[in-house]
Design goal:
Helix content is 22%, strand content 21%. The strands form two sheets. It has a six-stranded mixed sheet, with helices on both faces. Strands 1-2 form a two-stranded antiparallel sheet. The protein has 185 residues and is α+β, with helices and mostly antiparallel strands. The chain is built from three helices and eight strands; from the N terminus they run αββαβββαβββ. The longest helix is centred in the N-terminal third of the chain and has 17 residues, at 52-68.
């Protein structure tokens, strides 16, 4: 006997949002309650608010990078990186050739991308690392604010062994530049 309202079994489908759809939702105020978010593989990901150590290190590192980088490089702090129509991450920092505008930057143009991580370490080391590698980001650092180590990804491997904040790090694209995160915490 058939139930009067029987419907065929249908698997739910995932809807991947693209840049235009996300911008339209934001313009309509549909994302206002979310706060900060990024789009990864079409998924809208809520980003938790930053804790004190995260915010303190970001401010200090931003100031230092802005003062130290050669004029041939540009820096974006907390800005969208347009990898493609369905991948719009919001990294803490990314550096690229100053000849490009930020809206023109794509994965291979990113010389160094830095995420500061206190609550999102697993996400940053897995999903975002895979994403940045797939889009040919040249070098990716995840600063683990809880363990005070930096997980490096790039020419030495994805990932290379983590190193303590006290270790002097030099981005591959900027061999004369050296930074110790321990100097900022």
């Amino acid at each position: 006997m058939n139930a009067p309202f029987a419907r065929p079994v249908v698997a739910p489908e995932r809807h991947r949002f693209n840049q235009a759809e996300v911008q339209a939702m934001a313009a309509a105020g549909l994302l206002d309650q979310m706060g900060a978010f990024e789009v990864l593989d079409g998924d809208i990901i809520h980003m938790p608010s930053e804790g004190g150590p995260h915010l303190d290190l970001k401010a200090a590192l931003n100031l230092w990078l802005a003062r130290t980088l050669p004029a041939s490089f540009s820096l974006v702090c907390d800005g969208t990186l347009f990898l493609d129509e369905t991948n719009l991450p919001e990294p803490d920092f990314y550096l690229f050739d100053a000849a490009l505008r930020p809206s023109q930057v794509r994965g291979p143009d990113v010389k160094l991308l830095i995420e500061l991580s206190d609550t999102s370490l697993r996400h940053d080391l897995q999903r975002k690392a895979d994403l940045y590698r797939a889009f040919d980001v040249q070098e990716y650092w995840v600063a683990d604010l809880n363990a005070h180590v930096v997980h490096r990804h790039g020419a030495a491997g994805w990932p290379a062994p983590a190193v303590p904040f006290a270790t002097a790090l030099a981005p591959a694209a900027l061999p004369g530049l050296s930074i110790r995160l321990a100097d900022f915490v």
